[in-house]
């Protein structure tokens, strides 16, 4: 535990909160324990009295969009079993925000504005990682499509990596370490297979409007133009759930209420940002352990 | 059997009938992607290392390693003879496998021998050993060359830096992990 970092963490969360309040976002709290989760092929949820601890607050936040809240944000705990590493904890803090209308382009701009506002506060306070602040203060952030990024940094094109079932390995080993070094990088337009909740791009049916933000090779946020076609969403859920079942993982029954509410949304976009990683980057911490009060190993 | 989530630095696993130790470990998981376990593995017999990325459904065999107390008896050329202090069974370990350990081994010394499938692959020495200085240049009082250490040779042939007051025939204590001088041993 590092009390100085905890103080900085609190200040960063405060800066994030004031940004959203200043943009007319409603701060919400939604249940973190749910009877059914949105199935994702490569997640494993933790259970709690036959219900589940959320992997993300997405489900309830989108239902609030459907209920008529036009802009909302939440800073909350999320849980993912068996994820532990230098940048992973099975219990971590997520920032998510959603808005009606707009698409992933608007989100990229808003993410830039948020992080520049936070960087400005950190610069004013002093004692944060100056290189990361300078990186965030770069005027033009990079946008790179997945296809372009693989072309530039990987030994094979993205399509080939997908076909050979080694997309994740190539991404982690060759592409990610090169992203967000000179300026922050939005890696966008993911292959359809890798965007279960994202809308297909209007002029290219092969990719979805999804992006990940990278800073110094660290993946920080994941956003997309939301898929609001409930039928298509249900079809993709079945796909994801069947992959998860193959690995012995269940997300409970299909989240019916969520799918029903989704049909009421016209267009929307949303994004999840790892708060612990943002604190890591801004405070120059080498591991996620250094920015939380306690790790599971110390409890 | 181990699963991928057991992988960590220092874990010993068997691959293709050989023991490996994980010398570097990193968990990665790209957004919406699968968990990847990136390892650097070192062969515990040959020392050869390679990198390998595993996925969450991979399984691993525990390396059948066993540590036993043995007494170092003597060496014949490059072959070093050890005796299990319980079963009195004798084992031979080559100089190549012992590597730096030979610098600190004297007859009858008790060591921990690591066995893989009952074949010795390495030894762990006591943290500190006392060795006799066999060759040392006398210290010239008033030496103003500025150096506060001098080289000496100990009974195993190992050469190290010691304070100038150490003389031939004296015993000194050496840290086997670093090979550094610790103190003069008074008999």
What does this structure look like?
The complex is a heterodimer of chains A (299) and B (187). Chain A is an alpha+beta fold. Chain A has a single domain, classed as BirA Bifunctional Protein, domain 2 (2-Layer Sandwich). Chain A contains 10 helices and 12 strands. In chain A, the strands form 2 sheets. In chain A, strands 1, 5, 6, 7, 8, 9, 10, 11 and 12 form a 9-stranded mixed β-sheet that branches. In chain A, strands 2-4-3 form a 3-stranded antiparallel β-sheet, with no helix packed on it. In chain A, strand 3 (47-48) and strand 4 form a beta hairpin. Chain A is globular and about 50 Å long. Chain A starts with a helix and ends in a 16-residue tail after the last helix. The mean pLDDT of chain A is 96. By secondary structure, chain B is mostly beta strands. Chain B has 3 domains: 2-62, SH3 type barrels (Roll), CATH 2.30.30; 65-124, Nucleic acid-binding proteins (OB fold (Dihydrolipoamide Acetyltransferase, E2P)); 128-185, Nucleic acid-binding proteins (OB fold (Dihydrolipoamide Acetyltransferase, E2P)), CATH 2.40.50.140. Chain B contains 1 helix and 16 strands. Chain B has one helix spanning 95-98; strands spanning 2-3, 12-15, 18-28, 36-43, 49-55, 59-62, 65-76, 79-84, 90-94, 110-116, 119-124, 128-136, 150-154, 159-162, 171-175, 180-185. The longest helix of chain B is centred in the middle third of the chain and has 4 residues, at 95-98. Classes of the chains: A alpha+beta (299), B mainly beta (187).
